[in-house]
Amino acid sequence: MSTLLVSTVGGRSVDAPGEARFVSTDPARLDQVVAEVALADADTFVAACRSARRAQRDWADVPAPVRGRVIANLGRLVEANFEALAALVTREVGKTAAEARGEVQEIVDTCDFFLGEGRRMYGQTVPSEMPDKQLFTFRVPVGVAAIITAGNFPVAVPSWYLVPALLCGNAVVWKPAEYSAACADAFAQLIRRAGVPDGVFDVVYADGATTYAGLERALDAGLVDKIGFTGSSEVGARIGELAGRHLQSACLELGGKNPMIVTEDADLDLAVHGALFAGFGTAGQRCTSLGTLIVHDSVLADFTARLEEAVRRAPIGDPTDPSVLYGPLMTERFAARFEDYLGWVEDHHRVPGPTGRISAASPREGFVGDPENGLFYHPVLVHGVRPEDKIFQQETFGPLVGVTGYTTLDEAIELADAPGYGLSAAIYTTDPRKAFTFRRRTRAGMVSVNNSTSGAEAHLPFGGNGKSGNGSRQSGVWVLDQFTRWQSMNWDYSGRLQRAQMDTLEITPDLEYRLSQ
C-alpha cells in the first residue's frame, strides 16, 4: 500500500480538492509505487502563502543565532537519517547509491555552513560626515519565499534554497517536483522536527500550470516577496517575467549546455574520466551535465577512441548496484523527451553504438539487472556536431554528449559560449595560460580546470548566466543576498537638525602650494 502525500497549510495537512493524483514510481522498477500524491489547486498554494505571511514576522523576531541552531538541528537529523534518505532518493529518482549518498551529504554540508551564518548576519557601522551621528546597515529577511524545485536533485538543491531562506528569517512555501514527492516529504519531516514553527514552512504538491496560477495570484495579493526556481530555461523565463511584473528579481537556476574543452596538451586519460562522469553520471540529468565536447583537432581521433571505449565498457543498470555508472531516466516524461532529442541526430553525425531504450531487442553488453524493469537508455556520443545543429544549440537532458573539433583556443571559446547558456564549463589542459584565458573569457558562472562540469560545494556560489540564469547565486555567503535585503539607518543624537551635504564641516586647503626646487 503506497503512502498518500498531501499538501500542508500552516503546518497542517489539507485535503486536496477533486481527484487529481500523481503516482510516483521507482524508475528502475516501474511496477513499484513509491508514493501517491494528492495534487493541490491554486487556492491551496495561495492559502499556504497567506499562512506564511502571518507566521513570518514572529519567525523573523527569533534571534538569528537561535535560527542558526534550528539549522544545526536539521543537519544532525539528516545525518541520523542519512542512509534512509539516500535509499529513498535512489528508489524514487533512480540515482546510483553513491550519488544519492553524495546528495544527502550536500544537505549536511549546507547546514554545517549556514548554522554559523546565524552568528554572522553582519551589518556595518559606518562613519557619518556629521558629528554626533551614527550610520548602520542591517540584513533583514525578504518575507515570504516561494521555492519551486526540480526532482533531479530532490533534496540537495532544495536545501540550497530552504536552509538559507529559513536561517535569514523568511517563511517558505515549497513546491517540489511531483515525481520526487516522497523525497520531498521525507526532507520536510526533518525540517519540521528541527524546530521550524508551524506556518513558517509549508509544502504544496501541484502540477506546473497550477503552481504558476497560484504563484500569480499570490503575487497579485502581495503574499510573496521572493521566488526561487530551479528548472528549464523556458519555464524560468516565464517565472522571471512574472516576478518582474511585481518588481521582484527571482532566483533562477536553469538549464545548461555545458562545454568541455580538451586542449592539445591535455592529459587525455584524465579528460576521458571527466567527460564520462560529466556526460553520463545521473544519466545526464543534471543541469551541469556535459553538453558538448570541444576537442583540439590534433588529439580528436585519439581522445574520441579512448572515450568511446570508456563509454562502451561503462556498467549501466540497477542503481543499487555499486558498480554502475548510471541508472534509469527519472520518469516516463523525461524518457519521452529524450526520445525527441534523439530525433535531432542528423545525417552528417556519426553515432557509435545503439541509441534509445535498452531492451531485449536493443541490448547493452554488461547491463546490470533486467532492463525491461525500468527506463534505461543507451549512452549516446554524437560526433561531428556543428554550431547550427539543434543538438549543439539546445540542452539535451539525458545521456547524450555532442563532440566537435577546433583548431585555436579562440575558436574553442567561441564554440563553448555559442549556445547562449552560461552555467558550467570545463577545460582540460596542462597550460595555465590556456586555463586562465578560458576562465577570463567564458560567460559561464562556474569554471572547472581538469575536472568535470559537475560538482558543487556548499561554500561556493552556484549559478549561471544567459539562458542558465539571471545572475543570481546559490550556496555560500552569496545566497544571503537572495533572502535578505539591506536596510540602512542613521541616528542623529546631536539634538539639532543636521542636513547631509549642506551642514558638513568645511575644510579650506591651500592647493596652490608647491615645494621649492
UniProtKB/TrEMBL annotation:
Residues in Aldehyde dehydrogenase domain copies: 21-488
InterPro entries: Ald_DH/histidinol_DH, Ald_DH_C, Ald_DH_CS_GLU, Ald_DH_N, Aldehyde_DH_dom, ALDH7A1-like
EC number(s) on file: 1.2.1.3
Keyword terms: NAD, Oxidoreductase
Any GO molecular function: aldehyde dehydrogenase (NAD+) activity
Presence of keyword Oxidoreductase: yes
Active-site residues, Swiss-Prot/TrEMBL: 253
Subunit structure: Homotetramer.
The family this protein is said to belong to: Belongs to the aldehyde dehydrogenase family.
The protein's name: aldehyde dehydrogenase (NAD(+))
Organism annotation: Dactylosporangium aurantiacum
Biological classification of the source: Bacteria, Bacillati, Actinomycetota, Actinomycetes, Micromonosporales
